[in-house]
Amino acid sequence: MSKILVIGSAGQIGSELTLLLREMYGGSNVVAGIRKTKPSDKLSETGPCEVVDALDTDGLASVVNKYKIDTIINMAAILSATGEKNPMLAWDVNMNGLINVLEIAREHRMKQVLVPSSIAVFGPSTPVDNTPQETVLKPTTMYGVTKVAGELLGDYYVKRYGLDVRGLRYPGIISHETLPGGGTTDYAVAIYYEAVKNNRYTCFVKEDTRLPMMYMPDCLKATIDLMQADFSKLRHHCDFNVGAMSFSAEELAASVKKQMPGFEISYEPDSRQDIADSWPNSVDDSAAREEWGWQPEYDLDAMTADMLRAIKEKHDKGLI
Fold this sequence. Notes:
Layout: E1 4-7, H1 12-25, E2 30-34, H2 41-46, E3 49-51, H3 57-67, E4 71-74, H4 80-85, H5 87-107, E5 112-114, E6 117-118, H6 142-161, E7 165-166, E8 168-170, E9 172-174, H7 187-198, E10 200-203, E11 210-215, H8 216-228, E12 240-241, E13 245-248, H9 249-259, E14 264-267, H10 272-277, H11 286-292, H12 300-316
Parallel strand pairs: 1-2, 1-4, 2-3, 4-5, 5-7, 6-8, 8-12, 9-11, 10-14
Antiparallel strand pairs: 11-13
Helix pairs in contact: 1-8, 5-6, 7-9, 7-12, 9-12
């Protein structure tokens, strides 16, 4: 039985991934690594929680030894928009935290390390439609720079030390559970909350801004599918494109209006527009489909219906 540490368990993806892994492997076998944020009741009641800072090598090693960890999922990162406000913090957390995780995994001969990447690895010189698996990587954000370096570093540990390191390039992730934390695609979550609370939303990107997106259930499925894939069949390791859907902000609003005809939207692009403009419209994820059988389940309208249903339930209960 694997002993898994999820660093960044309080984050948007980490919080839901930790709970799913506990359902699969047992609560005591999945440690929630929390840095500053108080863990939710769901996290604290279903398994062990520990203060874990990837920049604190001794503290990280102590948790690894205490629970006999053999698998680390490193979800700790400073995202794109936040990273542009403090680039050196983004470099420190995203790169020095990663090298600490990889070194501890190497020293302890761990089974596996999973380190997510992002569509932020792409830049203005990358083909924007059906962006290839192998292509130009010249990002314009510190977040993107660290993700390119992280992919290369993970591949280095695979080739140099035989460590099983895996990663996938997440698109924008949409969820009704934990709010995102400073990413450029946050509008695709905020629109649903504002639709339910106020029946209107002011979007910080232009209406024709098109980006790859993914609903959280598909994000979790992709992560677990990659973790469980046969390592010997993987030709890529740390840089898999994964796609589910691509839509413009205007198309997202139209999907909401199908469910809520009175919904109104306006557009006031800010500094995040430049970041969005540097990213792809869609990605070619044929490598993930061929090497580990990736297949998404949600399209835009199915996601919208589920998001609005869940958020309306929270609103009716006074939770938002």
